[in-house]
Every structure is written in structure tokens, then in C-alpha cells.
Amino acid sequence: MSRFWSRKAGQLEPYVPGEQPSGRKLLKLNTNECPHPPSERVLKAIREIEGVDLLRYPDPNAERLRAALAERHSLSTDQVFTGNGSDEVLAHLFQALLQRDGTTVLVPDISYSFYPVWCQLYGITLERVPLRDDFSLAPEDYRSDAGSVLLANPNAPTGMAITTGQVRELLEASVNRLVVVDEAYVDFGAESAVPLIHEYDNLVVVRTFSKSHALAGLRIGYALAQKPLIDGLQRVKDSFNSYPLDAVAQAAGVAAIEDTAWYDKTCKDVMASRETLSTGLVELGFRVLPSRGNFVFAEHHQHEGALIFEALRREEVIVRRWDKPRIANFLRISVGTREQTADFLRILDQVLSRMGQKGGKGEGKGEGKGEGEGEGKGVEKR
Questions:
Q1: Residues 245, 270: one domain?
Q2: Is 113 inside a domain boundary?
Q3: Environment class of residue 202 by beta-carbon count within 10 Å: exposed (0-12), middle (13-18) or buried (19+)?
């Protein structure tokens, strides 16, 4: 600790990016990136960037991208806010809309672990609401006299989703509290809350290009809400960084939105691979939660998750796990291509066969170092 650190810096338990190995050929199924390359239309837009586009500052308001997003979601441009990845958008949201005097933020007890970090950073009281025994979220558990509600739909790391009707229940429980729905994974089979924006002034939906548009390396995120909420986000953004999205990201984002054929095919391919992966895991003795994300969350009926995690790693296969009550035996496995899915199931079958010969309980624990959603050891970039 430096003697020049602020008290706040010394007290933080900061975000740590998820593991991104380089220089090794691994079967990497740990950070929920899209398994398919971006749209050729996106790559063409990037190649067409000229020197003049880079020597000048980018459009501070990303007008073309916001217009494309507004058209895509049947909203007006002033109902769209863009930022440098959905994590930055959420950070601005915490400061602009959730950091109010005496406010509390309710989040599921098993969810994206950056939420508690932002609460700590901005001095916001966090209340964890337990998921049900089957890991489902029940709107009635979020009492109406409490603070704002923040949830991921589908949830991470469970992959389970709630319906638009359940989001409506949360919104109508108290019109004086904000409901934030983080839809990073919504495009893989869940219901989006975006249509409710026209009806409710207490709803914000946050989304990303990292998953269903295969642009995790460009960092494009956005929020959708009625204009007064967007104006609040804009005020914080312009007090922090007037140019959060560079010219390359803006051009790529517009092209990604416009290429609906690529988007539709990619989402369908991911969902098909997810079903193959889920079926294969069940056949290998796993309990698999019903996922609507580009990943699955599963635990084996016989072998400890830590042992499977370490055994897979020795085979140069990376998945994710957390040392946290209720989910310590679960593995979160990103959906790969059809070929990657087949390779993973084949290697996992071999690993489990070897473990079956040795016994699957009480042989040690793998810590999953560098991982962290829910265990306080870091979280992944979106």
C-alpha cells in the first residue's frame, strides 16, 4: 500500500479481470465470449476506417450508433445511452441513479460479482436477496419498501431467466424505486424487458455487444430507458469521459446492428450448441440448470467440482468455478462451436472415467485462481 493512496483506495476489494491466457492452445470455455468470429460486415467497416477518422476525436455522443440502436429497439435516440462496455455503463448508472441518500440496492445472492464492487466504490448499501432452492428468482422476495433492484437476466452464473411478466411485477411493486435489468445474455433465448420502457419510467435495461455480436474486444455497451434517466447517465458520462467510444468501435457497432442475418444465425447456432452441451452433460451424470445464456451451469452427482475443474485444466481445458456456498460444486461452461462442444464432452468423459477409478470425493480442492464471480477473487470483463 502506498502512503499516497486515498482511504477509499485502501479499502476497496477491486475488480480483477478474468483469466485470458495467451501463447497456449487451450480449449477456452471460461469467459462467455462468442465462439464465432464477428460479422464480415463489421470487419469491413473496421477496414474502411481512414486516417482522418483516427486523428480527430470521435463523436462524443455516438449519434449514428445510438440511432441504429434506437431503430433496432423501437425507441427514440434520446432513450439510448452508449459507453465503453456495459461495465462502464453500469458504473455510471450506480453513480447517476443508484447513489442516492439512504438508498439500498437489492441484488440476488448469486449473481454478477461486479455489483458488490460498485456498491463498495460508491458507498451504496447492498442487500443480497437469496435465490430460491432451485436457483430461481421470485419477484415477491424483493419487498416493495426496500431500495432499487438490480438483476441480470439471464442471471450469471446460473443462466436462468425470468419473464417479462416477472419484470413487470418488480416494476409495479413500487413506482418509486428503480429496477435495473442487465441483459448481457438476453439474446440467447430469454425475454427482453425493453418493450416495457414505454410504460415505466423506473426501468433501465443495460446491454452489451460482447456476447451476441462477438465484439468483446471492442468494448461497446449501452443502456435503454426513458429520457430523464438517460439524461442523468449523460451528465455523469460528460463529467468523467466525453469520448468513451472510439471511432472504430462506433463504426463496428453500427455494422453489427445492421447485419441482422449474421446475428440471427449466430444466436441460433449458440443455442443449438448449448442444447448439445446440456444433453451431453446430463448423459455424463451432471445436473444442468436451465440456461438462457451462452453458457451452462452444472454440477456432477458424484465428483466434486473442484476436482473436475483441476482435472480439466490439466487437459488444457479452462472452465469456471467458485468457492462459494451453494455453488462450490458447480462449473460454468461457456458454449463453444459445435466442434469445441464435441471436443469438450469427449475430454470430460475421459476425465470422469479416470476420476471414477480413483473415487470422486475428498481428494483435494482446486481454488480456480484468477476467477471470481461471487468468490471475491475477481470477475470477468464483459
A1: no
A2: yes
A3: buried
Is 350 found in the same domain as 272?
yes
For residues 87 and 127, state if they share a domain: yes
Q: Do residues 39 and 230 lie in contact, with contact meaning Cβ atoms separated by under 8 Å?
A: no
Alpha helices in the chain (DSSP H): 7-11, 40-47, 51-55, 63-72, 85-93, 114-122, 164-173, 227-237, 247-258, 260-283, 305-314, 338-358
Q: Can you tell me whether residue 221 is helix, strand or coil?
A: strand
> Which residues make beta-bridge pairs with 179?
149, 203
Counting the structural domains of the chain, the total is 2
245 and 345 in a common domain: no
Tell me the residue range of the domain where 180 lies. 40-259
Omega of the bond prior to 21 within 30 degrees of 0, cis? Answer: no
pTM score:
0.91
Report the CATH number that the domain containing residue 174 is assigned in CATH.
Answer: 3.40.640.10
Q: Which of 159, 190, 112, 131 is nearest to 330 (CA)?
A: 159
Instruction: Provide the residue-wise pLDDT of the chain in tens; the chain has 382 residues.
Output: 788 998 888 888 876 666 777 767 899 999 999 999 999 999 999 999 999 999 999 999 999 999 999 999 999 999 999 999 999 999 999 999 998 867 899 999 999 999 999 999 999 999 999 999 999 999 999 976 778 999 999 999 999 999 999 999 999 998 889 999 999 999 999 999 999 999 999 999 999 999 999 999 999 999 999 999 999 999 999 999 999 999 999 999 999 999 999 999 999 999 999 999 999 999 999 999 999 999 999 999 999 999 999 999 999 999 999 988 899 999 999 999 999 999 999 999 999 999 985 554 443 333 333 333 443 344 445 5
Q: How far is CA 282 from the centre of its chain?
A: 25
State whether 233 and 120 are in the same domain.
yes
Same domain, 207 and 327: no
Task: Give yes or no: residues 146 and 237 share one domain.
Answer: yes
Q: How many residues does the chain have?
A: 382
Whether 21 and 90 map to the same domain: the answer is: no
Residue for grid cell 439524461: 231
